[in-house]
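Model: Ready when you are.
Researcher: Fold this.
Model:
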Amino acid sequence: MNVLMLSPGFPDEMNSFTEGLAAAGARVYGVGEQPLGTLPARCRTALTAYLQVPSLWDDEAAIGEISKEARANNIEFSRIECLWEPLMILAARLREALGVPGMTVAETVPFRDKEIMKSVLDAAGIRTPHHARCTDENQSRAAAERIGFPLIAKPIAGAGSADTHRVNDEKDLDRVLPLIRHVPEVSIEEFIEGREFTFDTICAAGEVLYHNMSWYRPCPLIARTVEWTSPQTIALRNPGVGPLAAGQEMGFAVLKALGFQTGFTHMEWFLTDSGEAVFGEIGARPPGARSVEIMNVASDIDLYQGWAEAVCTGQLSQQIHRRYNAAVIFKRAQGEGRITQIEGLGELLSRFGPHVTSVDLLPPGAHRRNWKQTLMSDGHLVLRHPDLETCVEMADRVGTDLRIYAA
């Protein structure tokens, strides 16, 4: 099977999915902007061939170059895959141009445009935040008056929580609107108070082969705006149990309403204090920020290859054994400049060592990352435990006792 993979080496997690395709038996043809020699060795090893194009942001030119190369080498693709959200429309256009099965442009747009997404789900009777599409400040102010405070302002076609702001009142709206003036279209939405979870799936031909539920601690909006936090994501051993059942039921309903067929999905949703499940958003892609890693750790599974099997064969050969809750804790250095010191790691490993599966911290001498631009911060630690309360306690201890300093 010939599979075309857009941007096989970037972002970093794409290397693992490219490897997964090769492990599943596919001949992987990569397309990207960077020279082949700059791709990580493990990505290059997984590729059958690679085409460097001047730009992946000029759809017409990229489609023309890829089509020409395929014809010249007499290559017919069985699948065209892209797991990086900004390029998903290009992937859909390529499928249509080359006659390859998979998500069309019309099927992809609701996963990229948050207003269309919510309109489809509104029509299906799924609870979404009250929302409005706005292209200028006057529309945003009118929507805010209609929806009421507090509210959320976020990009229509964004990913993650970048350029996302909570707005508490008129004065706050005056502060936020200039900050998002560069965003062409924003969604003004009802603010939902509650804990935030994910519903992640791998599907084939409309059937859910694997699902996961993760818990964000704290919610991403706080993690993105409060520097001293150590954001956590916890893949839950028992998804859909108790109050979480409402979110799982909604997740399946969302996939059905959007007609999703094959690949990875990542949905975010809220559980209110009253027990109501409220949809947040969904992408036709895997979650980022090491979330697939903790899903693997929680079940001793390889979902990079599992996704590849699903798209290539329609099956998932690995057995799913949910043995653990698994947490990734991201750490931010105190101070600015270069990392000077790491404290508390030895003691934590002494206490929790058997439960720690990976540690990846910037070494002394490395320049501190801009915490506003990346959730990955200055490193992370992954741990797991069968008991959720114990897992949370260990994760919180990492958040307080592991300290990184920069100067």
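Researcher: Now this one.
Model:
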Amino acid sequence: MNCIELNNINKSFGTIKALADINLNIKKSEFFGLIGPDGAGKTTLIRIITTLLIPDNGKVFINGISAFKNFKQMRKIIGYMPGKFSLYQDLSVEENLQFFATVFGTTIHENYHLIEDIYVRLEPFKNRRAGALSGGMKQKLALCCALIHKPEFLILDEPTTGVDAVSRQEFWEMLNRLKKEGITIVVSTPYMNEANQCDRVALIQKGKILQTDTPENIVASYSKKLYSLKSDKLYESYKLLEKFDKLSAVHLFGQELHLSTNNNQDTTKIVREFLDKHKIEVKISEIKPIIEDCFMDLMLNDE
């Protein structure tokens, strides 16, 4: 059963095409990820799903109901956590939570079971002003406020951006526990490695969906041979290999290069011999792709 259905969504801001013919189906109780870099169109799409932004054309259905024609009804069943912290910074933790519960006609006590695992970490700071919290604590408070009215859908826009690695891991653990409550979760992130936390993902770039599938199937669909190259002269190697016609693509990945090729030639030997001519020693080996490799390959094919 599709709980969120997007049909031919387009959105432009002046001459900038933010979204182009977006079609998505998100299932009930699914943990769905929108994965893409800054400027890919994730926030625009999230705001359209939450009825905060109207597309130029296209339709959004939530539980089979037109979202824009029934936006007041939609907002009662959606919990939204924007990318930028937007709670009342002069109110305390407890006052913020109480305010949002009151707005939705409920109480903290009524739905406390949804936020208990999160709020226990906030409770020692319940009298502290929201603006004085750390990034990780602000994140937890925003999630509590988005959940306090027991929404059917939890929509989160880049919730882990700007927080430390430990807080990021804690946050994903909290979301996985919430999924067990039957809540449909849609989350956007620029971090490719976070795709593996989701049941399915849509890879998005320049307002277009490149591929939608499970993380496992996306990786399995990668058809090229892939190699890792390490060298003391990494950037010099990168600039030389960019123009090397025996390779399909060359990308910098931290302290190594990822090289891809469509053919069955001995790429390790060819690359090593090519760089030997430039007096560059390398370590090169065949590797398995990750989501980021797949994204880069899809992006190149889309150009």
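Researcher: Key takeaway?
Model: The longest helix spans residues 165-179.
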